[in-house]
Design brief:
single chain; 77 residues; mainly alpha; 1 helix; 81% helix
Length: 77
């Protein structure tokens, strides 16, 4: 009994439907994962922008304080 000679068209159709359904589920899942990753990258980009702004503000504040401290006479101990 060779199974290749004994193929039922219904089994082939069922297998085709199963594979197509499985591929569609995989595509949907990969799209969800892709959307999630892109969302996280966008969020990280926003956080990096906020961090850069905060660092810039700190540098600016430190620079202003150095200028203010530079105008004061040094203290001797």
């Amino acid at each position: 009994m060779d199974s290749n000679n004994n193929q039922d068209p219904n089994n082939t159709a069922d297998l085709t439907d199963f594979v197509q359904n499985l591929l569609q589920q995989m595509q949907t899942r990969f799209q969800q994962m892709s959307d999630s990753i892109i969302g996280r990258i966008d969020e990280m980009g926003s956080r990096i922008d906020d961090l850069e702004k905060s660092i810039g503000d700190l540098i600016q504040q430190a620079g202003l304080e150095e200028v203010d401290m530079g105008s004061k006479p040094p203290t001797t101990t």
